[in-house]
């Protein structure tokens, strides 16, 4: 069998590294054709030597470095041109392992090239889900999400002839689930970054604490599975063993379960429609003993309601929500604002925004820019 | 759309009544063509008047009754000839709602007639699973199980391109899960018949107490899903919300969840591949709060090990296991033997049996008869 040719965009981040572990586990099945990384060019260099990609995108410092050292058989691109790698003829699957809105152009490029796209990135679908999904249908690009919740829904729906009535997105509840509301104000980035279930980057961990992350997933799920917002519910499940569930018209639910290791959904996307051993230890429910569930507390975590509302309003609003949140969380992580101000700032920006309906890509990017500027005004210097 | 024509064999029992409730819920979708009942001909008469079947099988007392009263447009059969109803040309789906080995012939008849069969009956598959499944393949008969666990597995596998690595059958643990082993001896039928999760007949409730019922389901699942015994595991899950799970090669699991109401799996089988509203309230995991899991205690419930062993030995052994158990449980329910003697008797009969490999139908029935006689000897008078 011809190996599957991969482009891994964001190969030095957490998802990128886990993707390469999956490649290691099934090295004959995959060929790494493209890699990209923004900053960590030293790790990228090691990856180039090990996986021998023919196309690599990297930030300016890395470009300068590789220009000096040179690596035979590798074409280098500025990181902003990683879209070219995503749409290379020889690439079968594009893993979008980078975070941030920077993933939007490579996502669109891959979709237009009719690739299979395995996105871990949330932002692109949140801000431009309609555009991406329209293009995906047009170019018959297949999207197999890597995010554990979206992968769970994808797996539950795989081959089912019935459409889902409701999708239940599970959420660990984040690091503040057991913290009293009155203590939220004095939560430092350090307090927040001790996330109980999934090891993730700092931005997404803060978004888990506010439940904004789950709000983004609501928007993602809407686009990925062609749902209305009223068909999406959030369920707190601290053990994060049930990765999400689908409920059908008859009240029957299918759930996908597994250990909390990103290699599972990554491998699923890369070997789809086959399933192969992961080399990881399996789930032992008897040993685990108990799974818990509770309703999300929307009073303590208003960001989730706000996300549902922004999602319902649609148009340019999700882009504004995302941009304002990125700025506010960034300011929190730098110690510029306190934890509760994240929500306050995002809410204010959202309320000030005049929605553009059915926005073009340009209108989305304008809304994004506008929201960042508004947020920065509120953050202050 | 032409209504689906149903034959409901065992229409006055618990599964039969629930099947008719499903028919009531979607009355335009179904036409009841055949009904059968052994004894309760008064209830059967009401059902005949309401659902207007054209073919009815009933025990001798009922036959006599209907001969006297007469019902226009209904052909009556002795209950042993209900196989004829199962294979009627105009029948689409045969619901095997009767318990006991008596279901074997109608099951085979329906399979040979290429029907869709919705079995709630365990015995037929336990004693003659190989024969039934061979004939089903030959005649392209579809079997959509109604048993909640088997239905769950069927639903989890529906449309999946990967074969299951392991099937996890969940078990509520039965009425003795929290009872100390030393108290087992003095358990009366009355103690046992307070089953915590599913309302069922007395025989199956006693089998739930010994976990023999789960052992039978292991054998059933083996046949229904073409598994080896090493691919089947049992997991105690007292809330009975996860009805069973399928684990794939990558360690990912799919689970089917729902409220504990038999109308769910019955309706699924009857409307397959569609799913329709049930009119029942849905599952509320947040309200439920907790799901628990534990390993089955094979020391306290040796019947489960015995069933696995009989299952592994195969041939005529499962038929012997089933027959000996039916006799022993019957004797327990009549107060002839104590609770612990159920296992002792079944084990002795199993140990005394000389296995017939690849048994014919006749050999299976002989083994069944032999086991009943052996069990009765041990029960005494």
Overall description:
2 copies of one chain form a homodimer. Chain A is of the alpha/beta class and 381 residues long. Chain A is built from 16 helices and 12 strands. The first copy, chain A, has helices at residues 14-25, 41-51, 60-69, 82-86, 104-112, 123-138, 148-157, 189-192, 202-210, 212-224, 263-271, 285-288, 302-313, 317-333, 339-352, 361-379; strands spanning 4-9, 30-37, 55-58, 75-78, 93-96, 116-119, 142-143, 166-171, 232-236, 242-247, 253-257, 290-292. The N and C termini of chain A lie far apart (57 Å). The model of chain A has no long low-confidence stretch (mean pLDDT 96). At the A-B interface, strand 10, strand 11, helix 11, helix 12 and strand 12 of A face strand 10, strand 11, helix 11, helix 12 and strand 12 of B. Strand 12 of chain A pairs antiparallel with strand 12 (290-292) of chain B.
